[in-house]
Structure formats: C-alpha cells, structure tokens
UniProtKB/TrEMBL annotation:
<protein>
    <recommendedName>
        <fullName>1-(5-phosphoribosyl)-5-[(5-phosphoribosylamino)methylideneamino] imidazole-4-carboxamide isomerase</fullName>
        <ecNumber>5.3.1.16</ecNumber>
    </recommendedName>
</protein>
<dbReference type="InterPro" id="IPR044524">
    <property type="entry name" value="Isoase_HisA-like"/>
</dbReference>
<dbReference type="GO" id="GO:0003949">
    <property type="term" value="F:1-(5-phosphoribosyl)-5-[(5-phosphoribosylamino)methylideneamino]imidazole-4-carboxamide isomerase activity"/>
</dbReference>
<dbReference type="InterPro" id="IPR011060">
    <property type="entry name" value="RibuloseP-bd_barrel"/>
</dbReference>
<dbReference type="InterPro" id="IPR006062">
    <property type="entry name" value="His_biosynth"/>
</dbReference>
<dbReference type="InterPro" id="IPR013785">
    <property type="entry name" value="Aldolase_TIM"/>
</dbReference>
<comment type="pathway">
    <text>Amino-acid biosynthesis; L-histidine biosynthesis; L-histidine from 5-phospho-alpha-D-ribose 1-diphosphate: step 4/9.</text>
</comment>
<dbReference type="GO" id="GO:0004640">
    <property type="term" value="F:phosphoribosylanthranilate isomerase activity"/>
</dbReference>
<dbReference type="InterPro" id="IPR010188">
    <property type="entry name" value="HisA/PriA_Actinobacteria"/>
</dbReference>
<keyword id="KW-0028">Amino-acid biosynthesis</keyword>
<keyword id="KW-0413">Isomerase</keyword>
<dbReference type="Pfam" id="PF00977">
    <property type="entry name" value="His_biosynth"/>
</dbReference>
<feature type="active site" description="Proton acceptor">
    <location>
        <position position="17"/>
    </location>
</feature>
<comment type="similarity">
    <text>Belongs to the HisA/HisF family.</text>
</comment>
<keyword id="KW-0368">Histidine biosynthesis</keyword>
<dbReference type="InterPro" id="IPR023016">
    <property type="entry name" value="HisA/PriA"/>
</dbReference>
<feature type="active site" description="Proton donor">
    <location>
        <position position="137"/>
    </location>
</feature>
Length: 248
C-alpha cells in the first residue's frame, strides 16, 4: 500500500461527448452507436461535483463533419471556469482553431488535421505549444481519421513526424476498445511511451478501478492521464472513487 501511495498520481479526464446537443457515448467510435445521457451541462456538473480537475469535451458532430455543437461547448466551458477543459472534435483549419481557442479551453486536441494536413498541424504546434495535443486514434498500428471512418497512416511514422514538429502531448486511443468496457490497451501505451519523452493521455476501454490502478502504474513511463467515459456513465464506479485510486 505504501508503494502505491508513493506512485505519482494519474490525472483523470471524465469525458463529455456531445452529439445533437446531448451528452452521448459511442461504441468503438461508430456513428449511430450513440447512447444518450442527456444534457452536457448536467453531465459536466456531475463530474465537477465529484472533484474533476479536467473535462475531456468532444464535439462528435464536428468530428464526423456533420454539424456543430459549438454553442453548447462554449456554455459548458463558461459554466465551469475553474475546471480545465481539453476540447476535441473538428479542429482542422485556422477558422475552427480560432473558434476553439476563443472558447477558453485549456487545451485543444488535433485529430484528423494532424494526419491529413501535417504542415498546418506543425505550424499550430509551433505557435501554441502546451495548449495543443494531438490525438492518435489507433487500430493495431494504423491510425484512424475523419471520426474514425478513414485510415490515417502508420502510427510510428506519424509519431516520428509529430516528434520532429515538437508536439507537446499525445492522446492515445485504441479505437477497438473505446466504449466497450474491455480494459485499456496497456501494451500500446507502453510502446508509445517508449518512443516519445512527451506525456501521453490514455483513452479507451477503462471498465474498472483496477484499470485505473493499472494505468497509474504506467505514470513513471510517461502516461500522464486517462480519459474515462462509458464506465462512469454506466455506473461501474464513481468519479470520486476513480480519483481516489488515481492518487487525488
């Protein structure tokens, strides 16, 4: 117990994924697999009430290129000014980047743009540094783009390119695990952290407090945090319980 108590803490980012104005969860990132969990403001309020220091806020409609929930996302960020927000979904050009920055989010996630428009992404990384992370959404070692509907290249080639660009942080999702409650891909996380000194945020598959503990064991390798979604909404554990295991 003493060894565990001395392990550096794992930062948890409860997820609020928004589609059609509602908080939803997908299974393996597939459009049409949404489970509706109501008002995004209520979802965020619940995580904040339980002690969240970060929220992972995603505009799924923007990610899929089928619309925008920008007004709702702005409202969530404004409502919870004391909480850090990592904003993701549809940030692909200067206009969407500026709009995302103006929300007051603490950090922006680039996804598809980092794969399809590497020169623009490198410029953004150079300009905004710590305020920008890149999402690496993976099936095997093949990246997924366009809301996980298209292939986006080889993970290791893209990671090397992003390292050259000076990317400050990566959000690594095993698409096959996301929303399935089958446990995180620890091997993938170990492989990624072995190839970059930058912090990594884990995403996908967390189903139990044991999974949180297993990810906390990887903090010394470079796993800085973990996005928790479906397990919280399904009531597998409370955020307060998860934060306790994570070291808060």
């Amino acid at each position: 117990m003493n060894d565990f108590a001395s392990t550096p803490k794992l930062t948890l980012l409860p997820a609020v994924d928004v589609a059609g104005g509602k908080a939803v969860r997908l299974t393996q990132g597939e459009a049409g697999s949404e489970t509706n969990y109501g008002d995004p403001l209520d979802a965020a309020a619940e995580w904040v009430d339980q002690g969240a220091e970060w929220i992972h806020l995603v505009d799924l409609d923007a990610a899929f290129g089928r619309g925008s929930n920008a007004a709702i996302l702005r409202k969530v960020i404004k409502q919870f000014r004391g909480v850090n927000v990592e904003l993701s979904g549809g940030i692909r050009d200067d206009a969407s980047l500026e709009a995302a920055l103006e929300t007051g989010a603490s950090r922006l996630n680039l996804g598809t743009a980092a794969l399809e428009n590497p020169e623009w992404a490198a410029d953004v990384i150079g300009r905004y540094g710590e305020a920008v992370a890149v999402g690496l959404d993976v099936r095997g070692t093949t990246l997924a783009a366009r809301g996980w509907t298209k292939e986006g290249g080889d993970l290791w080639e893209v990671l090397a390119r992003l390292e050259d660009a000076g990317c400050s942080r990566y959000v690594v999702t095993d698409v096959t695990k996301d929303g399935t409650l089958r446990g995180p891909n620890l091997d993938l996380l170990c492989e990624v952290t072995a190839r970059t000194p930058k912090p990594v945020v884990a995403s996908g598959g967390i189903s139990s407090l044991d999974d949180i503990a297993a990810l906390r064991d990887l903090v010394h390798l470079g796993v800085e945090g973990a996005i928790v979604g479906k397990a919280l909404y399904a009531g597998a554990f409370t955020l307060a319980e998860a934060l306790d295991v994570a070291g808060d």
